[in-house]
Amino acid sequence: MTVELGRYGIWRRGSAVSPEFAAEAEALGYGAIWLGGSPDGDLQGAESLLAATERIAVATGIVNMWKTPAEEVAASYHRIEAKYPGRFLLGLGIGHPEATKEYRSPYATMVEYLDRLDEANVPAEGRALAALGPKALRLAADRTAGTHPYLTPPEHSREARAVVGPGVLVRPSRRWCWTPTRSGPARSAARSSTSPTCTS
């Protein structure tokens, strides 16, 4: 089952998203919440947001492949999917080289990690890959629901779409800000951290 992410989503560090925030985002009509900042492989943060909501999807952006073994992530994925079918997307990636001393061939690491998720029966349509270059983008198209690039210009989205082809997820992180007019955790966060009209 493909996860329905809607037209607009919110990307925030996992530590900045509470169940109350998620419930309000859902009430405002957002389709998905992306948990950034390399969430833990137990995925407890994602599960708590799903428990507090009824329809909004939750995605990781991203679980770092260096940080958590694929088998642990797979067990967490299956636990969540059993409770909240079709509402969780496992966003995966290798992160930045400076973040880990074990960093080695990024492409080989991604292939091996996806192989291990396959062995653990995590479906391709339930995961997305943080992919930037053509080789990684083709891997994302072949072995996941698509790609979730981070901090890329609009031109990259066009290039990614050309590589992966139609019908494959290309969900870049972009920033759209608004001025909230009522109170609530999502609106308060927007008021304190953004200007009324900022896009990137």
Q: What do you see in this structure?
A:
This protein is of the alpha/beta class and 200 residues long. It has one domain (9-193): TIM Barrel (Alpha-Beta Barrel), CATH 3.20.20.30. Helices cover 38% and strands 14% of the residues. The chain contains 7 helices and 8 strands; from the N terminus they run βαβαββαβαβαβαβα. The protein has helices spanning 19-27, 44-51, 70-83, 106-119, 134-143, 154-164, 185-193, and strands at residues 9-13, 32-36, 57-60, 63-64, 88-93, 127-129, 146-147, 169-170. The strands form 2 sheets. Strands 1, 2, 3, 4, 5 and 6 form a 6-stranded parallel beta sheet that branches. Strand 5, helix 4 (106-119) and strand 6 form a beta-alpha-beta unit. Helix 3 (70-83) packs across helix 4 (106-119). It starts with 8 loop residues before the first strand and ends in a 7-residue tail after the last helix. The model is unreliable at 190-200 (pLDDT under 50).
Please tag this protein with its features:
alpha/beta, six-stranded parallel beta sheet, 200 residues, 7 helices
Q: Poorly predicted ranges (pLDDT <50, ≥5 residues)?
A: 190-200
Strand residues, percent? 5-15%
Identify the CATH architecture: Alpha-Beta Barrel
Helix/strand order, N-terminal first: EHEHEEHEHEHEHEH
Instruction: Give the fraction of residues assigned to helices.
Output: 25-40%
CATH class: Alpha Beta
Query: How many structural domains?
Result: 1
